[in-house]
Amino acid sequence: MTRREVLERLRAQVEAGKPLLMFGAGIGLTAKCAEKGGADLIGVYSTAIFRMRGQPSILAWLPYGDANSHMLRMAEEILPAVKRTPCIAGIGAHDPALNFDLLFDRILELGFSGVNNEPFCGLYGESFAAQLEQAGLGFSREVELIRRARERDIFTVAWAMSPEEAARMAAAGADVVGAMIGVTSGGMSGAGSVTPLEKAVLQVQAMVEAAKRESPEVMVLTHGGPFADVETAQYSISHTDAVGYAAGSSGERIPTENAVVDAAKAFKSMHF
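Above: the chain's sequence. Below: its structure in token form.
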């Protein structure tokens, strides 16, 4: 699906008063079910493969595998399970050997409709992120990923964790900015300490305003932190100018945990 076609689909949803939903998938079944449930975009990125192995998503930020190789292997499983929903490739931009154009060619050949900067360096903390930036492998490299994709007329979703990052991504040509409030809370491996809901929506709104100052057409989704279920996701949309929500652990890991635990308990309640 071309960038124009994806944008037309998303804008039609917004104009119809329907919030957008991006759904992260670590396995083909998740993607298949998300499409059936009406997801507008399906994200394919390395964090999801860890959470569906029963491990914390944060492992994707540690040196236990190549994020881009993970994404390409996941594509073999996930893309055939999706019939009509645009799939977005999560690209780790920080690899110094990465040739953006060659990887763009590969993902388009596979059937992806866009790119996304994941993993992203915002979770590393100020000191380490600054060292990455000095080495030319930090957030600027993620901005370059989005800029280069836009030059190729490829649809882009860009994560940002501050108004400054949101503005830079919008200026680089991002079609969608994901306002990230950190690791999602809840479930067996979610964040134990998160930003309070009331403060989180203020942070989101600041990112929305910063992004739209650079690009009035950009669409902003909320994600992470305390936005961990339908109720809190709705709160994030109702109290900001964001036009949708990006589900990761909240749409995949946590519902799976709950459903399997409940099923096991129900079967274990059988009796002679």
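Residues 29 and 144 are 33 Å apart (CA to CA).
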